Amino acid sequence: YQCTTSMFSNETGTYTMNGAMVSLRPEKNPYKMTNSGAPSSNREAAGKLVNRSFPVRIYREGPLMRLELKDAEGAVQTFSASSHK
């Protein structure tokens, strides 16, 4: 059918650091879902606001500084700035 389903979410809010923990407090979390094969199912909504806290680790890997967050299930997310100038 060559249909495409897309979802976009952009959470914004505040964070606080306390030692090796970061706490996220979302204030807005709108999402938009589109389906090119069934436009009647397209929707936009406010999204859930869920407070979360993560252990955080900052470390160097080669020339990059990395930020690592680990959730309650042990899944790790790593963030770093681009090395391109």
Polypeptide structure, described:
- This protein has 85 residues and is mainly β.
- The chain has no helices and eight strands.
- The strands form two sheets. The chain has a five-stranded antiparallel β-sheet with strand order 2-3-6-7-8, with no helix packed on it.
- Strand 6 and strand 7 form a beta hairpin.
- It is elongated and about 50 Å long.
Outline of this structure?
Helix content is 0%, strand content 59%. The chain is an all-beta fold and 85 residues long. 0% of the residues are buried.
Specify the overall morphology: elongated
Main beta sheet strand tally, sense and closure: 5 strands, antiparallel
Order of strands in the sheet with most strands: 2-3-6-7-8
Q: Helicity range of the residues?
A: under 10%
Which structural class do the helices and strands define? mainly beta
Global Rg: 17 Å
Low-confidence stretches: none
Overall strand count: 8
Series of H and E elements: EEEEEEEE
Number of alpha- plus pi-helical segments = 0
Q: What number is the mean pLDDT?
A: 90
**Whole-Å distance between the termini?**
42 Å
Percent in strands = over 45%
